[in-house]
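Re: [help] complex structure
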Amino acid sequence: MKIVTWNVNSIKVRLPNVLEWVRANTPDVLLLQEIKCVDADFPALELRELGYEVHTHGQKTYNGVAFLSRLPVSDISRGLPGDDADDHARWIEGTVAGIRICGLYLPNGNGGEEKFAYKLRWMARLEARAEALLMDETPFVLAGDFNICPTAADVWDPPAFAGDALCRPEARAAWRSILNLGLTEAFRGLHPDRPKAWTFWDYQGAAWRFDHGLRIDHFLLSPAVADRLIACDIDRDARGREKASDHTPVWCAIGDVA
DNA sequence: ATGGTTGCAGCGCAA
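Output below.
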């Protein structure tokens, strides 16, 4: 099973890129972030024509996540538990082939201490959700735009980003706390030393041209799924297309149960 | 150099 995560930064603007990429790469499950539209405005017909079940958790203007699958999906659930007052559309989960797949858009956390505090609270809820799935012994995948550069190796200019919410020690500590539940980060598990493995290049400052990137889109696997991990990689090519998102797709392949 | 770019929405805000 091939699972893809991609922050598309508006599905309305990105639809041609997404359709072309899906035709060429035929993922089984496609998790999108920042669709930036309400559910009724998501271009479901176009994706159904390519063979996908379409589930969305959208909102006006900001955020919004989608869960698309060529395989049957059951028990879709929207919203990360733990705060009924949180109205950001950042979480959608569903079961495919016995795996609970969670698509997430973690808060960026820049723009003031209130926003950073929200990010940390959201990460505490994420850890609680992962713990609950582990307790249930549910095989699961957490995938999406985590807005976290786990280490200095995941940042093009570490000193310049020292105070950025994507790199701040409290955010990295929260990330490690989640990993320390016993999860496997798919990309670094398979490519521990690959340099400049970026998944995001800012629109500003010609970041793509200079290869000034960050690695912030990730897959976290529960132990049973980690045992079945075959491959995980980043499709840089999509970032170089016309009208590209500032993020590029990241994918992983999970083998069938032996 | 407190800059620059994109998207939404309708102009400042979020990223």
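The two ends of chain A are 14 Å apart (CA to CA).
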